[in-house]
Fold this protein.
Amino acid sequence: MITNTSLDDFYQRNGAPLPDGITKEIGHFNVFEAEKLFDKKTGTRIMPYSRREYYKISWINGKSRAEYADKVIDMGDSALLFATPKIPYHWIPADANQTGMFCIFTADFLLPHKAGVTLDDLPIFQPGQLPAFQLNPEEAQEIEYLFKKMLKELDADYKYKYDLLRNMVLELIHYGQKLQPMSALSAAQNASERISSLFIELLERQFPLDSLHQRLGLRTAKDYADRLAVHVNHLNKVLKEVTGHTTTQIISKRVIQEAKILLKQTNWNIAEIAYTLGFDDIAHFSNFFKKQTSFTPAAFRL
């Protein structure tokens, strides 16, 4: 199984008490000074590779890197990192000279009154977006101010402080979104872009696969076309126009991403992984994986 880090796991590992006041609110929120915490089990600041059951925004001072199943992001002297429960990652400091702050929160804390709206609808948390941003000195100063203000408000007795804190978290999210290229934030304006957005959303709903009882439900371009009520040739044309890739290429890339996670982070055998990913034949899966990565599944796992 892929490790899932719950809120209780986070507090126990870092030796931090769960504040009483927060548990009485809708959802959960807290903010920390990073240098005051360390993993009790390892005695280090290294964060284990896992899917966290909460959202996290980190202001990081000091060189470090974030490792994902399909990429590694090296961060410079100051960076802003966004984490979603959908995507596991591993944070590794380059040295002991690390400072900064971070906040953790659940979806129901941030959007408790907006029916039909989820955090994953926000561009910063959508699949394919860059989750980390280098900050220049002026940007780092602005982010530091926001985090310190959150820490101050959290300790205050103001009756409506959680409303203020929600606004500050949203301000951080919008700050990150403004750092993205404009093309990454443009909303779908025509039918092709709407179909493309719906396809990506439907694709991401199939993941993560974190149990042997799960199996990928939609596997082929026709599966997705049928679900979206469009002809498979039209879907392929639309995706090629919007993304530059065919339907099959996009599906294959996402399946490979999940396959890498399962191979590296679970003890499932290759036949079990093949089955959960929709392959009835382990040889078919092995050939598919080697064609996409140049490695066999067994070689990649080593």
